[in-house]
Amino acid sequence: MPLTKTRFAPSPTGLMHIGNARTALLSALYGQRFLLRIEDTDAERSRPEFVAALLEDLRWLGLSWDEGPRSEEPDPAWFQSQRGAIYQRYYAQLEQEGLAYPCFCSPQELEISRRQQLRAGQPPRYSGKCAQLSAEEAQRRRAQGLRPTLRFRVPKGALVRFEDGIRGPQSFATDAIGDFVIRRADGSAAFFFCNAVDDALMGVTHVLRGDDHLANTPRQILVLEALGLPVPQYVHLALILGDDGAPLSKRNGSRSIKQLREQGYFPIAVLNLLARLGHHYDSEALMDLATLKARFDRSRLGKSPARFDPAHLDHWQQLALKSAEDPVLWDWLHAETRAIVPERRLGAFLAIVRSNCLFPDQAHEWARALFTDELKVDSSAAEVARQAGERFFLAALDAAQLAGEDFDAFLAALQTRTGTKGKSLFLPLRAALTGRCDGPELGAVYRLLDPHRRHRRLAEFTYASE
Ligand code: GLU
């Protein structure tokens, strides 16, 4: 059995988003070898900085490729913009065999023809105007300085059949496909062509991609068959929808991997979300990449659209935080946060972060509240403290004096002195000590606060509530 080789073939025209990261991940999980190719034939829109960003995102996710570029330096082995000479050989082969022809139709002519067809209720396709130009005529037009595109001659009256790895048997009538451009007028390779040719030349056995490419597949199969190149198995992944049910886009919640990274999501959280967008695992546990791969099952790729729910991402983030080791969590914090957490408080602080935060920004807020004097008191906390009144906080000061670091003793003493318990005991304390009405377990807060700071905060509220 030959190895299963999959690939990720991004066009570096923007940042990697959830949709293409899902394609990359499922491709990496699906096969035995994983290849990366840069489809940068669109010279206007492709940018080296997007290649660099892509590599960075893939590395951050931990998706290493067995074959492909090592840096953003354009390498003819993996960057389509550098592979013109290779494509040229295949264009020549098709032209010699009469399977491709130069087309001199101008963009304006094509647009007019397209509109006419649409008006007549027909699907727009190339009319075939240049399909029968003689070699002399083509030569004459070239001599006039006209630069033709090269079109693939689609056979008439045939069916292209293939078995899609998810959607099963597919069949497309060639009569519905117009002759299509395989080389642009500027000489660059068109997607249908170089994408298929490279898959074949690079030994890709399985092509996983979004099902927005499904209708492109018959064209690509025709090209490969005409060239006598191997046709891979196509696996078209169901679309990802946003939480409004529309295809996932920037408008309904898609985010770039860079944004997720900068916000503080852990790569394992993102991976666990992506791996379940269109693929089902029995286990709801957080899995590392190796486990996601070991438990990946091709037959569990779904046909129906997957829905991206930001709350799911946060769920995985929470699990990732819970399972992160102290040093990992420590590194994840902002440098400013690390600077204010006293070393002896580190373990206790990280425990608080683990169960109360999702992002480093939130951890920073807690570090500031616990280890600095910059206490921000929100309006509901101020109100709760005001209602508790001066007597409550005087009693609290007294109880704290008596109990020292023993939180239970402190509570018992305060309860006896004030006659309050439950929420009316906890909430004003929390409000005074943290400036908020929610947050970590109160005993942990109490113990983490430096006794002077604790004292000052309780004292402040004796005046504030006057
Ligand atoms: N460069 C193409 C894209 O980003 C690749 C499509 C494919 O995977 O075949 O859409």
Please explain how this structure is put together.
By secondary structure, the protein is mainly alpha-helical. The protein has 20 helices and eleven strands. The longest helix has 25 residues, at 379-403. The model has no long low-confidence stretch (mean pLDDT 96).
Strand and helix layout:
Blueprint: E1 5-8, H1 18-30, E2 33-36, H2 48-61, H3 84-96, E3 100-103, H4 107-119, H5 135-143, E4 149-152, E5 159-164, E6 168-173, E7 180-183, H6 191-201, E8 206-210, H7 217-227, E9 233-237, E10 240-241, H8 257-263, H9 267-274, H10 289-294, E11 306-307, H11 310-323, H12 326-332, H13 335-340, H14 346-356, H15 360-371, H16 379-403, H17 407-418, H18 423-434, H19 442-448, H20 451-464
Parallel strand pairs: 1-2, 8-9, 10-11
Antiparallel strand pairs: 3-4, 4-7, 5-6
Helix pairs in contact: 6-7, 9-11, 16-17, 16-18, 16-20
Q: Which keywords apply here?
A:
10% strand, Rossmann fold, single chain, mainly alpha, binds glutamic acid, 466 residues, three-stranded antiparallel β-sheet, two-stranded parallel sheet, Arc Repressor Mutant, subunit A, 20 helices
